[in-house]
Amino acid sequence: MKIGDLARATGVSPRLLRYYEEQGLLTAHRAGSGGHRRYAEDAPAVVGHIRALLAAGLTTRVIRELLPCVVGPGPEFEHCAAGTLREQLRGLEDKITTLQDARSALSGILATTVPSEGHEG
To answer: Residues of the signal sequence (predicted)?
Structure first.
């Protein structure tokens, strides 16, 4: 499959597909005298997995670790992904807690702000 075909099949730009390749997430083989990229038939599914994992907030480094554990079109994961996924979820929960604490603090500060005359807040 050529890069343009993969881009059309997935809705992902050729530039982004090349980035995925640079990050070790997607494999292409050079074919012909022009050295054009050719992707395997499962490349659209792999791109779908990458997009789903990015949407879950994972970095390309973490996705590179997880891709060998993907099975099926879902994606579903083999047990080898469980530890990494749990670690990422804990990190996300910690960030959420930090943001909620910051929101509460900011809300408290705002509540103590005295409106200036002639302005409503």
So the answer is: none
